[in-house]
Amino acid sequence: MTFQRARTEEQREVRRRAILETTSAMLDEMPVAEVTLNELSRRVGLAKTAVLRYFESREAVLLDLMDDRTATWLAGLEQELGRGVDPSRPPEERAEQTADVLSRSLAAQTVLCDLYGAQGGVLEHNVSVEVVRRHKRASLRNLAVMAGLVRRYLPEVDGHAEQLCLTALLVAGALSAYTSPPPSLLAVYESEPALAVHRIELRPALRLAIITSLVGLLPRP
């Protein structure tokens, strides 16, 4: 892929989208930690300095991509909750159904979980105030959408929905770092099965965290 110099806002937006789509494709092949500007610029067909005209750093690209991927995931989550949660059931059952859907859906988003895992310690560094402001505004919009979906099926959580959703996203990010053990760790687990208690499966661990939070928020009879 090669580009002529962008001279209009429309052309600049085409370049931005190409950079984001190329980064997204890279993340389907490698973890966030292995994405570099050099490889990104090579794949997108732009010089590294040209990429930096559209995004001020690698982290800025990844933050924008995280916001985009979150919005795309939430569009599908609405349908998943509609299929998986029965509004006619008691609150405790709806809480379990909601935890089932959220954990299954989030665990399937391995790239998104990786991005959330890197957010606080990596991605929100090496970026300007304006980039962080734009990212946080996008995050708030996405969080409001997610909280609204949860309230639709669990109105009992009411004003705690945003905090519940934020916790679920951050826990998914934190847990995801432990769900793909390196070969040396797998060898240890195989040779000493008692140590495999430390091995984490993302979906059940995430479901436990979400259902624990949900049950704690339900009003007591």
List the helices and strands and how they pair.
Blueprint: H1 9-27, H2 37-44, H3 48-54, H4 58-84, H5 91-108, H6 110-123, H7 129-153, H8 161-176, H9 183-191, H10 202-217
Helix pairs in contact: 1-2, 1-4, 4-5, 4-6, 4-7, 5-8, 5-10, 6-8, 7-8, 8-10
Describe what this molecule looks like in 3D.
This protein is mostly helical. The chain folds into 2 domains: 1-55, Homeodomain-like (Arc Repressor Mutant, subunit A, Orthogonal Bundle); 57-217, Tetracycline Repressor, domain 2 (Orthogonal Bundle), CATH 1.10.357.10. It contains 10 helices and no strands. The longest helix has 27 residues, at 58-84. It is globular and about 65 Å long. The N and C termini lie far apart (62 Å). The mean pLDDT is 92.
- Mean pLDDT equals 92
Low-pLDDT residue intervals, each spanning 5 or more residues: none
Task: Write down the secondary-structure element order.
Answer: HHHHHHHHHH
Oligomer: single chain
CATH class of the largest domain: Mainly Alpha
The N- and C-terminal alpha carbons lie at a distance of 62 Å
Number of helices: 10
The tally of structural domains comes to 2
- Count of DSSP E strands? 0
Q: Which CATH-level-2 architecture of the largest domain?
A: Orthogonal Bundle
Give me the secondary-structure category. Answer: mainly alpha
Please describe the biggest sheet, giving its number of strands, its sense, and whether it closes into a barrel. Answer: none
